[in-house]
Amino acid sequence: MLSVGLFIPCYVDQLYPQVGMATVEILERCGCRVEFPRAQTCCGQPMANTGCTEDARPLAVQFVKIFKDFDYVVAPSGSCVAMIRHHYEEYFHDGDPYAADYAALRRKTFELCEFLTDVVKLDRLDRQFPYRVGLHQSCHGLRELRLGSSSELVIDSFSKPRALLELLGGITLVDLERKDECCGFGGTFAVSEEAVSCAMGLDRIADHERAGAQVLTANDMSCLMHLQGLILRQRKPIKVMHIAQILAGHPV
Q: Backbone phi, then psi, for 123, in 5-degree steps?
């Protein structure tokens, strides 16, 4: 049985706990022993993104201390995993007491969809999802984690999340016109450039509407939080669900 340390992003913990619970449900159904370390904190991405990189250093060290002994670390967030795998390097140079622990931890930290496809090798889901679904490709998942494929950027097919969704009976994945376009959230970008952020988000929603999507999904709840806010303000009928909720069989 695989020992999995569950890392939950701050905004999921505070605003969307149902996404964390769905993640646990999926992992346990796949035979994993899941543990949620209560001492975990933010990964530090918001501070690093705004230039306060040194302020994020203690959080990186804390993350390594907490998660280093698990077989794997899994998070329902491409952006947080990208921060850990690609941006913690500057905190653990040669000679740092946690450099070796980080090097090992980096290799076993996964976004949920890539863990299910690359490690668990999930190839069957006995449940139905009879809806037209639009899959939003988050920037971190597509460009940093390369969830489109194992080795290169693929715009036409976000293959790992898409492959998992295709295991569901009755689902129709709609064809979007601008598959690789950012939703405009960008963390603190949505605060500093509110108008641009909202315009980008509305463009993405319009693409899903033209394709006839009933449900809009992604593997990053941060993107979905931004898009859902715009959808609610515009009183649009599209439902928003994290991919973990769909795979776990949560109702629309």
A: -135, 10
* Residue 173 DSSP one-character state: E
For the chain, how far is it from start to end, CA to CA, in angstroms?
Answer: 31
CA–CA gap between residue 24 and residue 143 (Å, rounded)? 26
Distance of alpha carbon 25 from alpha carbon 249, whole angstroms: 10
Both 14 and 65 in one domain: the answer is yes
The residue range of the domain holding 60 is: 3-118
* Count of positions (residues) in the chain: 252
Same domain membership, residue 206 and residue 147: yes
For tokens 């994993």, the residue is: 32
β-pairing verdict for 172-173 and 132-135: parallel
**Stated pTM of the model:** 0.91
* pLDDT tens digits, one per residue of 55-103: 999 999 999 999 999 999 999 999 999 999 999 999 998 788 999 999 9
